[in-house]
Amino acid sequence: MGEFIMKDTIILAIETSCDETAAALIRNGSEIVSNVVASQIESQKRFGGVVPEIASRHHVEQITIVIEEALEKANMQPSDISAVAVTEGPGLVGALLIGINAAKAFAFVHNLPIIGVHHIAGHIYANALVQPMEFPLLALVVSGGHTELVLMREHGSFEVVGETRDDAAGEAYDKVARVLNMPYPGGPHIDRLAHEAEESVDFPRAWLDESYDFSFSGLKSAVINYKHNMDQRGEEIVPAHVAKGFQDSVVEVLTTKTLKAAREFNVKQVIAAGGVSANKGLRTSLEQVFLEEGIPFTVPPLKLCTDNAAMIGAAAAYMYEAGVRGDLSMNGVPGKELKSWK
Ligand code: KG4
Ligand code: ZN
């Protein structure tokens, strides 16, 4: 009797929604074969944020190089690939289109299916590269553009149970960092400073009553007002004390709401995802709370928290299994909603 060998599912994934040009090859939804990220942080730093036109120009310059490097590092040919996946949205439309057009061209030339992935689904599925997911699952998604609590009852099913009403957590980090004269992106700098401080300035927490929604603009304004008041009185602020006060407020609100939702929905696993989940204070707080609560908690390694294509490939592998396919009419959707594929 002949031996039956199952062919691996290999996804070539592309991500260009913001300021990282990224390509990755993922085997069977769980193994990173290669993961290449070309960051624009150095050039965007000068402007204190991401300038869309500059982002697009960088993506155009980098995309082909990054895809070739991903194939080379994996030692793979286009013929090894099962499908091409790309971030369809949300993100900057000009940036998204560079990745989408590259994905379409690759899929067309090599006669491969194409799969459009939601950026947040990608962030969530970064965790599938660490550990298999257990359902029901609660995901805290905290990035530069998003702050959401997402309930998943099975693969490909997403219910947003809470979201920010104003600024995203990462956006608040970046704005507060600017007030403290720190470079973009400010999150890692505030995180580091907060850990150096022994004292902190007391800032408010926005609980929004029983809701699982978030709000960070009041906290951001409180930091700005504090700085103005100190300036007017001719007093110097201690940036580390401000950073710690700000971070304590963000971490306490995120942790408390995540715990409350995890209890209400009786979840088997809690995960954190997105750029802000690289935050040391937040990781420690969530790890400790869910250890005490007895609910398994996972968060990806730092490299997989911020934007990358491996996470897009991980989500796409499950979409591929579920039979989800896009086509060459795919377009960038800047405000794309997180919808279930099941
Ligand atoms: O997920 P991401 O790379 O891009 C988006 O999809 O938005 O997230 C970027 C955000 C930035 O706002 C950055 O300041 C924040 O993640 N970030 C952090 C840390 N590392 C990155 N925020 C707090 N602490 C960190 N260690
Ligand atoms: Zn992101």
Automatic annotation (TrEMBL):
GO terms for biological process: tRNA threonylcarbamoyladenosine modification. Substrate binds at V141, V142, S143, G144, G145, D174, G187, D191, N279. Its EC number is 2.3.1.234. Binds 1 Fe(2+) ion per subunit. PROSITE patterns: GLYCOPROTEASE. It is found in: Cytoplasm. Keywords: Acyltransferase, Cytoplasm, Iron, Metal-binding, Transferase, tRNA processing. InterPro entries: ATPase_NBD (IPR043129), Gcp-like_dom (IPR000905), KAE1/TsaD (IPR017861), Peptidase_M22_CS (IPR017860), TsaD (IPR022450). It catalyses: L-threonylcarbamoyladenylate + adenosine(37) in tRNA = N(6)-L-threonylcarbamoyladenosine(37) in tRNA + AMP + H(+). This is tRNA N6-adenosine threonylcarbamoyltransferase.
